[in-house]
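A.,

Following up on our hallway conversation. Structure tokens first:
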């Protein structure tokens, strides 16, 4: 009987030890799972933080683009070559040479003035003469027509001639565009690789030393 009891006690002890070992093993596995979850949470936290920085930076870039692109787009669109709907090639102008403040002695673009007969009939009465062609054809006998730059006036025929710029200066003041050595308006946004009024009917509507 004694041996049987001792055997039963040993079996119970072994069973308890087995349960304890099972619990310890489960505890270690759970602890390892918690460590793994903590590691994943840390990586997720870092990723979220980096994504937040990326999104914040992207939003800033978009904001800057929305603010500056409208101000800069004319510098790109106005240098597209050839001139829209023509075969006229522009004089190549780099970003650094757009501003008139930078001297550029070799800058010598050709003149582009859409002929009067190419305009719609209703616009032809408003088309200015091709001054560059007149100067070239008449040479020393050329006399510059009288233009009232940066002003609104009436022609001898009673037609309103508005040669003011559409650009608004600081504090809402009227913008005064400059004239070049030939007494013709220069584009206030800078060089575009062409001279002349292009496809516009009149000088001075949008300053037209293109």
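Then the amino acids I'd put at each of the 210 positions:
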């Amino acid at each position: 009987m004694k041996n049987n009891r001792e055997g039963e006690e040993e079996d119970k002890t072994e069973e308890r030890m087995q349960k304890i070992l099972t619990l310890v093993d489960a505890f270690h596995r759970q602890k390892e799972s918690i460590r793994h979850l903590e590691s994943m949470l840390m990586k997720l936290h870092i990723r979220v933080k980096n994504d937040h920085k990326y999104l914040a930076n992207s939003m800033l870039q978009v904001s800057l683009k929305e603010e500056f692109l409208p101000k800069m787009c004319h510098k790109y669109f106005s240098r597209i070559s050839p001139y829209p709907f023509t075969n006229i090639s522009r004089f190549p102008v780099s970003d650094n040479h757009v501003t008139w403040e930078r001297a550029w002695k070799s800058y010598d673009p050709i003149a582009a003035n859409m002929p009067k007969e190419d305009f719609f009939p209703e616009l032809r009465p408003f088309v200015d003469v091709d001054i560059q062609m007149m100067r070239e054809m008449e040479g020393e006998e050329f006399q510059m027509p009288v233009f009232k730059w940066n002003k609104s006036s009436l022609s001898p025929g009673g037609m309103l001639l508005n040669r003011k710029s559409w650009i608004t200066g600081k504090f809402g003041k009227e913008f005064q565009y400059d004239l070049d050595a030939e007494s013709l308006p220069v584009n206030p946004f800078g060089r575009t690789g062409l001279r002349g009024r292009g496809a516009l009917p009149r000088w001075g509507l949008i300053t037209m030393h293109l």
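Strands lie at 111-113, 152-154, 160-162, 195-198. Curious whether your intuition agrees with the design.

B.
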